[in-house]
């Protein structure tokens, strides 16, 4: 983002970034940003903070989640990771497992993995068979539909050609009579001459 000022109010920056004031306050809280405030207690954003807000908004526009953006900004040392809270009131012990227990756990997960693989394989085979059956059924239905359509077209064509044959026969009959009448008239004329 091109920085034009030494400091921005929350309203100025929100308008410049195209986000709400609430969004900037939310980012401030989520990313543990210590935005400075003036003597009246109003936030103002320095160029550094304005650029951080711009980066956050750009990454959100690209579809990144808040957690992912935090990781990116922490890895680039742009924001500090949240402080680690240690509570000394509880004495936490790390459980220690024997080799036998670890082997049992490993065997359990191996068996679970095998069962899961078999289950998925069975489900996939079943789904594959169902899809195959549906495709065959659809092919048969489509074939029947095509046969029906072809029969209808053939029937229409037969009727059409019958009409053409009838029309041709009528035309021939009409022209045949007129041909004979013309010939007979011509013959009669010649006799009369």
Automatic annotation (TrEMBL):
PROSITE patterns: HTH_MERR_2
GO molecular function, one term: DNA-binding transcription factor activity
Segments forming domain HTH merR-type: 7-75
Superkingdom, taxonomy of origin: Bacteria
InterPro entries: DNA-bd_dom_put_sf, MerR-type_HTH_dom, MerR_fam
The keyword Amino-acid biosynthesis is assigned to this record: no
Keyword annotations from UniProtKB, A to Z: DNA-binding, Repressor, Transcription, Transcription regulation
SMART domains noted in UniProt: HTH_MERR (SM00422)
PANTHER family in UniProt: MERR-FAMILY TRANSCRIPTIONAL REGULATOR, REDOX-CYCLING DRUG-SENSING TRANSCRIPTIONAL ACTIVATOR SOXR
UniProt name for this protein: Putative transcriptional regulator
Source organism of the structure: Acetivibrio clariflavus (strain DSM 19732 / NBRC 101661 / EBR45)
């Amino acid at each position: 983002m091109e920085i034009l000022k030494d400091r921005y109010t929350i309203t100025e920056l929100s308008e410049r970034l195209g986000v709400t004031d609430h969004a900037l306050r939310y980012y401030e809280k989520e990313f543990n940003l210590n935005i400075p405030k003036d003597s009246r207690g109003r936030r103002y954003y320095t160029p550094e903070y304005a650029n951080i807000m711009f980066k956050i908004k750009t990454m959100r526009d690209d579809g990144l989640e808040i957690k992912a953006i935090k990781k990116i900004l922490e890895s680039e040392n742009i924001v500090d990771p949240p402080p680690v809270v240690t509570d000394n009131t509880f004495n936490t012990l790390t459980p220690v497992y024997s080799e036998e227990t670890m082997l049992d756990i490993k065997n359990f997960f191996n068996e679970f993995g095998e069962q899961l693989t078999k289950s998925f394989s069975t489900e996939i085979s079943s789904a594959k068979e169902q899809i195959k059956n549906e495709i065959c059924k659809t092919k048969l239905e489509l074939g029947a539909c095509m046969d029906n359509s072809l029969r209808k077209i053939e029937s229409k064509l037969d009727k059409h050609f019958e009409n053409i044959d009838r029309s041709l026969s009528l035309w021939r009959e009409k022209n045949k009579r007129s041909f004979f009448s013309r010939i007979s008239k011509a013959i009669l004329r010649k006799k009369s001459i």
